[in-house]
Amino acid sequence: MLKKVYRSRFSVLLLVLILVILSPLSILLFTHKIYQDMYILGSVFVFAILIYRGIHYIIIEDKLYIKIWFIPTCSLNINDIASLTRSYYLFDTPTNTTASFKKLCIQFSIKTPYSYIHVSPAKEKEFIEELLIVNPNIYVSLYDKKGIGRIFDWDI
Predict the structure, then answer these.
(1) According to the CATH classification, is domain 3-10+51-153 in 1.20.1250.20?
(2) From CA 96, how far away is CA 99, in angstroms rounded?
């Protein structure tokens, strides 16, 4: 039983977005000396980062498991995957298990509880190669956006 673990890609822009949202509130709490609420806000920020950093994709034989730290979120049969395409939207589906804007959309050939799911492995090429070893019939159609946000494949 061969087990391959891939951690999720983490977007720097996502971290900045979280900071932009929480900064005005933290400044307001600090100026009014509401320190206990600042601890709560800081805890929310740390919790969000821990959640996003804990996303892992695990391939064991012909199954793809998605876990957040030790909590399994779903199990997918790799032989049911029909195609892999590129997606750049953050909150586009309820099946978004990513911490990144650059991700893969996995579409299935048979009826499953969800018709597609998004993943964003940090070592994307290795991840795709492992999927293709198990199921060589997967149609792969990936394109990468060009522009200032894609310097050295840096996910901004």
Answers:
(1) no
(2) 9
